[in-house]
Amino acid sequence: MSFMRTVTVALTGAAGIYGGLVLYREYFVKAQYTGNEQLFGKTAIVTGANTGIGREVAHDLARRGARVIMACRDMKKCEEAREKIVADSFNTNVVCRECDLASIESIQNFAEQINKDEKYLHLLINNAGVMWHPSKLTKDGFEQHLGVNYLGHFLLTNLLVEKLSKCSPSRIVNLTSSMYKRGQIDFDDLNNSKKTFNAKIAYEQAALAIVIATQEFCRQYPNSGVTATCVNPGITRTDIARHTIDKSFFSRVIIGPLLKAFMKTPMQGAQAVLQCALDPKLEGQCGKYFSDMKEEPVGANAKNDKDAKRLWLISERWTRLKK
Ligand SMILES: NC(=O)c1ccc[n+]([C@@H]2O[C@H](COP(=O)([O-])OP(=O)(O)OC[C@H]3O[C@@H](n4cnc5c(N)ncnc54)[C@H](OP(=O)(O)O)[C@@H]3O)[C@@H](O)[C@H]2O)c1
Q: Known Gene3D superfamilies for this protein (predicted)?
């Protein structure tokens, strides 16, 4: 009897702590972007908009009246998400367009369609990404993190910058991770093909490449009227963990829900992205880095201008922007 009582007390205590953590996350950790900018007449592209943070950003932009182009690789998932966004936001000006960031050809086709068919483009949210993906090459032979998270968005940005510039002031928001601080650009083996593959190192390198290229973008396009910002959304419970904690049944069912208490919801993760996209105070400011809605100085490993130029030139060649 006393054993049962002990178990009951322990379970009640654990449930109380868990509930407390959830409440803490909901009411104290949560930072919310409170600006009420309206986006009627504005056009925004969100990559990877069918789930997670991207879907919440697309949803919010739609609620504000923007024309939202959801750039996704899986059209079925995209259409399902689009229908929900339209139903919730009462904005029918939300469309799906195919864009697989693991394929140069797909990105080129997508950008060509945008440049031909869209009258305006004011916002580009480079959100799609993979984390700790097992070793696998993209269609063009790039390591997945480098190819999708960094090179794919690098190419997309450069193919759309003219259109963004014509609609200036316009903004680009590049999602990255605070793990960029641990990253290194390995110029001898940028594509992770010589050394033993380590998904964590590959993710960190891609995250750093995003931060470096965001600043180099500002030097490459100084008078374009287009600003680029990079943002770490904070630890958010999304499908991003599909190659890590969500891999095993035990992790999914036991560890996943426990960790959930400490993590942001996708809507909370989206707030930092919305701030970078919309906050009038950031108008004209290029190359900033935000983490959890606070501006932070860019880390020392992302500040070498010579490395930035070198990375930019390699990226231009590898994505066939320049021979
Ligand atoms: N969640 C976090 O804690 C966290 C922390 C730091 C940074 N971030 C960054 O935040 C961004 C959004 O992540 P999330 O947490 O929302 O992840 P998520 O729920 O896994 O969403 C990722 C999105 O990217 C898409 N995607 C993946 N590969 C693609 C490809 N080849 N072409 C086009 N789209 C592709 C996915 O499409 P499918 O559904 O078809 O796979 C999905 O729509 C990522 O860049 C991530 O690195 C997240």
A: NAD(P)-binding Rossmann-like Domain
